[in-house]
């Protein structure tokens, strides 16, 4: 059971009363008359073969208020795309699958690359970006939710609570971030958020002093959650990273574009578990190691845009400060785990902190050595300026793929 405490500068919407799902969905159906609602599902083809997405589709079939579901499909050949069309045909709502490796979308992407306005890296950020473009192209929905496809504990109440704040006609929220506890199999999870992001933000405060941006980021209870919702107009000028910095990048863009009272976070689940990344101690290009580098670079870049000057000495001080704060957090999490009858391996936690500390140095050096790096995918406003017919061409490519391969 949640409390009602408001911490930080972002409104927190709690799950205080365990309100029946039927009541929330009935309201959402009435809201949909004024604000049609949609969903984005960024998916790897491999997730179609796992239990999580199969259950998600079974739950989504019964959602009565969605007008449109957009699935971004990565790493799929033609045979797999055909299978995906059959897999998602179970959905009763209007839906389309974006075949990101298909010839039509690849041709469009190549033209955008030539113009310098396409994502440069493969990954979730690129997938989400094209899905956002499709939502703008079709203009069928006003309020949009996005969540991952590997949620093992999914039920449709998660979606209802996630989209409610941006769908309610009397709320003025443009963006809502989901949060939840991360426990499974008797253990506390969420290592990157617990052991990297929170202590790193506190370390930046120690080194730089408290700033409005750092207070804003530290207000989110689970900043790396892949679940958020927004109004359609958010999509026009948002610039997002195409790497693992996606969630941090989205929060930073919301900070840049909107005042605090237009943003909120909401408790969307009592329990949440999904596919876990490996720590990858010996490979900086994979797993939590790459994730930690990308996230840290995203924070360096954002703070630099606010006039912060970083030097090698600053980064060394940041790393040392982070290391001490993160180690103190391990004791806090261990005691919290024991209080709740959960397990937490202190040795593994400290190994993660040691890797994250080293990756703060790696990310900082990369930032200093590549001052001209363009980490963000261009906004759709800029893309439409460079290619005025991009939305009609994107929608046409998706429709032709669906028509050709669905038979």
Automatic annotation (TrEMBL):
It comes from Pseudoalteromonas haloplanktis. SUPFAM superfamilies: Nucleotide-diphospho-sugar transferases. Gene3D superfamilies: Spore Coat Polysaccharide Biosynthesis Protein SpsA, Chain A (3.90.550.10). Keywords: Transferase. One of its GO terms (molecular function) is transferase activity. It comes from the Bacteria. This is Glycosyl transferase.
């Amino acid at each position: 059971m949640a409390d009602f405490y408001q911490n930080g500068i972002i409104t927190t919407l709690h799950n205080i009363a365990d309100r029946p799902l039927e009541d929330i969905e009935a309201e959402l159906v009435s809201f949909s008359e004024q604000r049609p609602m949609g969903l984005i599902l960024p998916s790897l083809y491999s997730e179609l073969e796992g239990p999580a997405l199969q259950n998600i589709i079974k739950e989504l079939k019964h959602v009565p208020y969605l007008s449109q579901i957009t699935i971004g499909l990565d790493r799929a050949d033609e045979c797999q795309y055909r299978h995906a069309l059959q897999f998602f045909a179970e959905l009763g709502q209007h839906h389309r699958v974006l075949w990101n490796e298909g010839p039509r979308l690849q041709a469009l992407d190549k033209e955008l690359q030539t113009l310098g306005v396409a994502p440069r890296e493969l990954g979730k950020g690129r997938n989400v970006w094209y899905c956002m473009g499709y939502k703008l192209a079709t203009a069928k929905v006003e309020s949009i939710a996005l969540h991952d496809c590997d949620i093992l504990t999914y039920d449709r109440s998660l979606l209802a609570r996630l989209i409610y704040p941006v769908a309610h006609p009397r709320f003025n929220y443009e963006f809502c971030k989901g949060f939840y506890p991360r426990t499974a199999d008797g253990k506390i999870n969420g290592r990157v958020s617990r052991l990297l992001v929170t202590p790193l933000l506190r370390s930046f405060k120690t080194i730089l002093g408290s700033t409005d941006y750092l207070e804003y980021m530290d207000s989110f209870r689970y900043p790396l959650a892949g679940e958020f919702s927004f109004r359609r107009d958010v999509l026009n000028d948002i610039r997002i990273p195409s790497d693992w910095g996606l969630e941090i990048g989205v929060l930073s863009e919301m900070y840049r574009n909107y005042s605090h009272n237009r943003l909120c976070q909401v408790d969307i689940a009592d329990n949440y578990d999904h596919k876990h990344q490996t720590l990858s101690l010996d490979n900086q290009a994979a797993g939590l190691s790459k994730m930690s580098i990308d996230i840290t670079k995203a924070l360096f870049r954002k703070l630099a845009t606010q006039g912060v000057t970083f030097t090698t000495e600053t980064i060394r001080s940041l790393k040392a400060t982070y290391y001490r704060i993160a180690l103190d957090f391990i004791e806090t999490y261990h005691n919290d785990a024991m209080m709740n009858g959960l397990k937490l391996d202190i040795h593994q936690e400290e190994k993660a902190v040691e890797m994250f500390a080293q990756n703060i140095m790696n990310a900082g050096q990369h930032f200093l050595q590549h001052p001209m790096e363009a980490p963000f995918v261009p906004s759709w406003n800029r893309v439409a300026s460079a290619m005025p017919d991009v939305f009609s061409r994107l929608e046409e490519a998706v429709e032709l793929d669906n028509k050709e391969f669905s038979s």
